[in-house]
Amino acid sequence: MHRVQFLPSGAAVDVPEGATLLDAAIRAGLPVARSCGADGVCARCGLRIVEGAGVLSAETPDEQRIKQRNRVDPELRLACRARVHGDVVATALYW
Fold first, then answer.
1. Is the N or C terminus of the chain more exposed, i.e. has fewer CB atoms within 10 Å?
2. What is the DSSP letter of 82?
3. Cβ pair 84, 18 in contact under 8 A
4. Do the beta carbons of residue 6 and residue 30 sit within 8 Å?
5. Beta-bridge partners for 48
6. Are the C-beta atoms of residues 1 and 85 closer than 8 Å to each other?
7. Using CA atoms, how far apart are residues 90 and 75, in angstroms rounded to an integer?
8. Cα separation, 12 vs 59, whole angstroms
9. What's the pTM?
10. Residue 76 — pLDDT band, cuts 50, 70, 90?
């Protein structure tokens, strides 16, 4: 299990290997902006990784295209696409 903490609330949850950041946020009871049903096309679920970016799944070319098409900050990771492989701290601009 890996710990994912969300700022500024400090809410933290333990998630299994390979869970998405979206899964973690939902478990923590936090609202995550999304309009595509977590299909990875709207790019509204972008999260800023404060700590642990290196333990997330690698950003795929598809995720990069989606972010570029939707004019999302390249530093953000899509919560529906980023998979957890270690402890992470994340935040969203809309929390």
1. N
2. P
3. yes
4. yes
5. 91
6. no
7. 12
8. 23
9. 0.93
10. very high
